[in-house]
Amino acid sequence: MNTVRKLADGTEIPLLGLGVWQVGDGRECEDAVRWALEAGYRHIDTAQVYGNEESVGRAIRDSGVAREDIYITTKFAPARRDPVAELEGSLRRLGVDQVDLYLVHWPQGGPTRAWAGMQRARERGLARSIGVSNFDVGELAAVIALGGAAPVVNQIQFSPFEYRRALQDVCERHDIAVEAYSPLGTGRHLGDEALAAIAGRVGRTPAQVLIRWSLQRGLIVLPKSVHQDRIAQNFDVFGFDLGDDDLAALDALDRTGGTATAHEHPWW
Ligand SMILES: NC(=O)c1ccc[n+]([C@@H]2O[C@H](COP(=O)([O-])OP(=O)(O)OC[C@H]3O[C@@H](n4cnc5c(N)ncnc54)[C@H](OP(=O)(O)O)[C@@H]3O)[C@@H](O)[C@H]2O)c1
Question: Which of 182, 188, 204, 220 to mutate to test the pocket of ligand 1 (most atoms within 8 A of CB)?
């Protein structure tokens, strides 16, 4: 399996990234990012509201891995006014000239409110690619209808238990890559019995099975961990395949009815 995907704007994104939501600023975040880079990750997913961009930047600088070899995503905190000004703050905290991907974190204030500012951020070279997060079908349509650059990514909650098949189909039709956030259900899915049975059958851990399912279902996937062994384990998913029966059994865990919505309980 390829480890990168080409986005609609021609750039390439690594299929597996480390998520750092709820990873403490300082030592905890620096360690997690360093361990990830040592394990082979080349993609880090942070956000302005995570409060740990400085630690992400420091760990990247200290790693010895070249900046151009690491894919950095951050997200615009949509309660703020200006995506350009907020990205300039992110770049200062990260200590880089440009991020690879800048997302509207959620559609607060309406799906189109931030989009002109997002496009300006890209035109000024502050972000190579721009996209959205937590957008449903109607919200994506509203952004596309503006007629400018369309989002190249929609980052949404996604796993076999939240198999948002209708939303994924619409994204694919518009060449919007889907990024799976909370691919382990923020840890909650890992104790599921059906998942454990599949993991036992294929000789992998439940986390590896969920991450592999995301890859085989055409998603970019962003697991989070602050433990070195788990960070390495979660990256060790390119050397096995889930068979059709196991994929179908995982698909059947969906609790959303294949929904086109981005979230059952929007917080915005
Ligand atoms: N755009 C958005 O609105 C949004 C929302 C949510 C998340 N996200 C992104 O998606 C990323 C991942 O989602 P998430 O943080 O909700 O969590 P997740 O990746 O679904 O699950 C992480 C949880 O699983 C545990 N874990 C990880 N690997 C494990 C393993 N191999 N074995 C056992 N336990 C393991 C972690 O514990 P330890 O850390 O203690 O190892 C943590 O409790 C976030 O960090 C963020 O980048 C984006």
Answer: 182
